[in-house]
Amino acid sequence: MVYDVSDGLTRFTKDFLAFNMDSIEEGAERLIRSGLDTKELLSAAQKCIEDVGRKFENGEYYLPELVVSGEIFIKVSNVIKRHTNPANETKKIGTIVLGTPQGDIHCLGKDIFGVLAEANGFLVHNMGVDVPPSKFVEKLEETGASVLGLSALLTTTYDPIREIVLQLESKGLRQKTFIIVGGAATTKGMVNKLGINAQTWDAYEGLRIIQSLIRDTEDAS
Ligand code: B12
């Protein structure tokens, strides 16, 4: 029987939402091998995990379901990573310091963005999760990176982001650093509110924003 990508995607979504841990990776792999774009696979997985998040918020699901959904997402991420070609150039086009600020331990979206950025020629310093503001500032000073990528899944992460901006201002580094945030807890409104440069809910869009920034900087110099 001929494999149909649309049917495969429906099955993938069903398996994800039913927490069928054993069939997810194989299903995702088959979808990609049959021509589905990694971007579409990421979007499908993101929709599923957001659905789990909504059910958690409604009280239908509890922490164990949240944990399992994260584990399933990691399996999908592994497939995406396997099929994301690394950049050919040895010369890096820019440097990004990346992390999830203090108090927040969500890492899935940040790590996917990091993989995409590396595959597109950026040097990425992924600092992990629960990173104190001063550590971000130290890393920016040490590496001379011009981009700071922050991931925020909890609304409480606003305070550490504000603190990062303040510390960069006091060190005279704010103007030299392009700050982009992503993750479910972020909104476009944060750009003005927190004094950052950009926001996105989509790793690919984030990459495009940073790439056009690099192009603009090169054109100006
Ligand atoms: C999975 C999950 C978990 C897992 C995380 C596993 C892991 N290793 O990361 C676990 C179980 C650990 C967890 C814990 C908790 N969670 Co949780 N979690 C989720 C869930 C369901 C999915 C998050 C996720 O990974 N999404 C998939 C990724 C791919 O999406 P994403 O992060 O948005 O990333 C995409 C883009 O935004 C972008 N992006 C992301 N970061 C960046 C960064 C840059 C620079 C760029 C350019 C782009 C970019 O690229 C990605 C791909 O396109 C969300 C629900 C939701 N709607 O998000 C709740 C959610 C975030 N969690 C929530 C809560 C409350 C918690 C807990 C407090 C629960 C508890 N009682 O303990 C703890 C928090 C612990 C802590 N201190 O951080 C709430 C937050 C509510 C709020 N407004 O603050 C949510 C929204 C669920 C809900 N609806 O109530 N969680």
Describe the structure.
By secondary structure, the chain is α/β, with parallel strands linked by helices. The chain folds into two domains: 5-82, Methyltransferase, Methionine Synthase (B12-binding Domains), Chain A, domain 1 (Orthogonal Bundle), CATH 1.10.1240; 94-220, Cobalamin-binding domain (Rossmann fold, 3-Layer(aba) Sandwich), CATH 3.40.50. Helix content is 57%, strand content 11%. It is built from nine helices and five strands. The protein has a five-stranded parallel beta sheet with strand order 2-1-3-4-5, sandwiched between helices. Helix 5 links the parallel strand 1 (94-99) and strand 2. The site of cobalamin has 41 residues, from helix 3, helix 4, helix 5, strand 3 and strand 4.
What's this model, at a glance?
The protein has about 220 residues and is an alpha/beta fold. The chain is built from nine helices and five strands.
What does the secondary structure layout of this molecule look like, with pairings?
Elements: H1 5-17, H2 21-33, H3 38-58, H4 63-82, E1 94-99, H5 108-119, E2 122-126, H6 133-143, E3 147-151, H7 158-170, E4 178-182, H8 190-194, E5 198-200, H9 203-220
Parallel strand pairs: 1-2, 1-3, 3-4, 4-5
Bound molecules: cobalamin.
Features:
about 220 residues, alpha/beta, Methyltransferase, Methionine Synthase (B12-binding Domains), Chain A, domain 1, Rossmann fold, five-stranded parallel β-sheet, about 55% helix, binds cobalamin
Average pLDDT confidence is 94
Q: In terms of per-residue confidence, which ranges show pLDDT below 50 for 5 or more consecutive residues? A: none
CATH topology of the largest domain: Rossmann fold
The CATH H-level homologous superfamily of the largest domain: Cobalamin-binding domain
* Rg, Cα atoms, Å: 18 Å
* Structural shape: globular
Q: What is the spatial order of strands in the main beta sheet?
A: 2-1-3-4-5
Straight-line N-to-C gap: 57 Å
| CATH hierarchy: architecture of the largest domain | 3-Layer(aba) Sandwich
Biggest sheet descriptor: 5 strands, parallel
Q: What are the bound molecules?
A: cobalamin
> How many structural domains does the protein architecture include?
2
